[in-house]
Amino acid sequence: MKGIVFTEFLDLVEEKFGLEMVDKIINDSNLDSGGVYTSVGTYKFSEMLQLLQHLSENTDISIDNLLLVYAEHFFSVLEKSYPGLLASYSDPIEMLSSIENHIHIEVRKIYPDAELPTFEVVEKSKNSLTLIYKSSRAMHHFGLGLMNKTFEHFNAKATILLEKLKEDGTEVRFTINKK
């Protein structure tokens, strides 16, 4: 997992819960990195799971809800860092349907060894989209949060249904209906 995911996560934890919480979740975890991350480094996903688990335990916020909040934070990082990418779209359905054939291609230019989930477009119309998310990392609520922020970015509203196709969350169907 790319380091930017870790550095931004720890920035969010510091912003929302304080530096003491950052220290606590790092110290409570058994991290090969020692909790020292660079945005361009690559780290084990198990480290993110430990950090999320310890944050959840210390805040009584579910991991899924933490991932939703983190996605909102991460979207703002994307808005600031890659405004041209977002500006190339005028509609949230178009943007979300192009994750595989445009957005992930651009991400791989910056982070060639990034392990990204896949988003298969099953059905698409002007106001609806069905995607199948597949990843060895069950971070579908992070994806859901990014989708929510995508609609907010375009001043649009939608209902987004998440259905686990595999119990462990490694395969999920998102059904999106623009209002």
Annotation keywords:
179 residues, alpha+beta, H-NOX domain, 2 domains, four-stranded antiparallel beta sheet, 8 helices, 4 strands, globular, NO_sig/Golgi_transp_ligand-bd, heme binding, Heme_NO-bd, H-NOX_domain_sf, Heme transporter CcmB
Our estimate of the beta-strand percent is 15-25%
Helix content: 40-55%
Q: How would the global form be characterised?
A: globular
Widest sheet, order of strands: 1-2-4-3
H-E string: HHHHHHHEEHEE
Q: How many DSSP helices?
A: 8
Looking at the chains present, what oligomeric state does this protein adopt?
Answer: single chain
Instruction: Determine the CATH superfamily of the largest domain.
Output: H-NOX domain
Tell me the domain tally: 2
Question: What would CATH call the architecture of the largest domain?
Answer: Alpha-Beta Complex
Mean pLDDT: 93
SS elements, strand count: 4
- What low-confidence regions span 5 or more consecutive residues with pLDDT below 50? none
In whole angstroms, the N-to-C terminal distance is 34 Å
Judged by helices, strands and strand pairing, the structural class is alpha+beta
Per CATH, what is the topology of the largest domain?
H-NOX domain
Rg from Cα? 16 Å
Give a quick account of the main beta sheet: strands, pairing sense, barrel closure: 4 strands, antiparallel
> CATH class of the largest domain, anyone?
Alpha Beta
InterPro entries: H-NOX_domain_sf, Heme_NO-bd, NO_sig/Golgi_transp_ligand-bd
Protein name: Heme transporter CcmB
GO molecular function, one term: heme binding
Organism: Pseudalgibacter alginicilyticus
